[in-house]
Amino acid sequence: MRAELPPVTQLTDIVTRILGLNPGSFTLQGTNTYLIGTGKSRILLDTGEGKPSYLTLLASTLSLHQLTISDIVLSHFHLDHVGGVSDIISYYGSNNLPLPRIHKYPHAEDKFKCQPLEDGQVIKTEGATLRVVTTPGHTEDHIAFFLEEERTIFSGDCVLGQGTTVFTDLKAYMDSLLKMKSLQPTKIYPGHGPVVQDAISKLDEYYRHRVERENQIIKVMTHFGGTMTAREIVEVIYKDYPKNVWKAAERGIIIHLQKLEEEGRVERLDGGKWVLKSEAKC
């Protein structure tokens, strides 16, 4: 069951969460956007997908506390995180306010002009120092932000407040989990869902889950002779799940197999089949 989240929550003296008002099966309660800082000028992290109701909520929150946005930082190119940028810029322009600077790690699908971010770069405002942490895997341009004053991390879609996330490159994703853990964060502010209060346990849980799935794939392939299609693996591992989830599960299995192929533990054959290398068998 999803936790109920208020539209606006002051989480700490530095961090206020504003929901993107776009709940759904993939976005949970909606995209979390965050106002960061303690002064009148704040950093906004992510912008929702562009719902008019979000702009109204954001504007009313800023007006209530007489705040302005100096900088917008974006975790990755997915619409539910960048879709509100144009509306915010239009709002600032129509009200003759200084336009926020937009910052993002570069990606080919970016639709607006951003100041490029790089690993280790620092963006500051009164009361807050954000350090960029490149965390590819969910997408190739995904980044997290480490809040030095709290030793907390904004994880974007790398870690969610509930459930697990999807990824396009499993090896990069698992390396990103380890990279975030190396910072020893106390809490995680995720891109969706409630705050994760025990950051290290959650990062370990995510990493362990991927290792367990990988071992399960190898075990199944070993049991069935070492050569299988991704669909055949799904039919074994997900036999007790509804068939309407098998297609999504197959995509996940393929990404696992691609990582194993990169590591030289399986080989891709014609006809969609994969063969387990003898040294990788259980």
TrEMBL record:
InterPro entries (alphabetical): LACTB2-like_MBL-fold, LACTB2_WH, Metallo-B-lactamas, RibonucZ/Hydroxyglut_hydro, Sec-metab_biosynth-thioest, WH-like_DNA-bd_sf
Source domain of life: Eukaryota
SMART domains per the UniProt record, alphabetical: Lactamase_B
Domain Metallo-beta-lactamase, first and last residues per copy: 30-192
Keywords assigned: Hydrolase, Metal-binding, Zinc
Database matches in Pfam families: Lactamase_B, WHD_BLACT
GO molecular function terms attached to this record: hydrolase activity; metal ion binding
UniProt family annotation: Belongs to the metallo-beta-lactamase superfamily. Glyoxalase II family.
Name of the molecule in the record: 1038_t:CDS:1
Organism name: Paraglomus occultum
